[in-house]
Write a structure and sequence with these properties.
This protein is an alpha+beta fold. The protein is built from four helices and three strands. The chain folds into two domains: about 40 residues, YefM-like fold (3-Layer(aba) Sandwich); about 50 residues.
């Protein structure tokens, strides 16, 4: 499993080459901090691309659902969502028992 490592900005600057090799070859992730505050992250490019793909897929799904339900009143949608959540929680509760 990939572990996020913390590095301060000065060390990141001094060891940028090593940091990049660890990200590229080992899949490591780094959070660069300045004065103890997280300022930036360095992650493998494939993870960034995968995140963008998932985001686009999610936004496409949201748009599709919106198009299919835009004629419904918000109150109806909210009621159906609450009913669905309740049903799922009841099923999950029965499985635990």
């Amino acid at each position: 499993m990939d572990m996020v490592k913390k590095v301060n900005a000065l060390n990141a600057r001094k060891k940028l080459g090593q940091l990049l090799e660890e990200v590229y070859y080992k899949g490591d992730q780094f959070v660069i901090e300045r004065a103890g505050r997280p300022m930036a992250a360095v992650v493998p490019v494939w993870q960034l691309e995968e995140r963008a793909t998932r985001k686009e897929r999610l936004l496409g799904t949201v748009e599709k659902v919106w198009q299919q339900t835009k004629h419904l009143k918000p109150g109806i949608v909210e009621r159906e969502v609450k009913q669905a959540i309740k049903a799922v929680r009841e099923r999950a509760g029965r499985r635990k028992a």
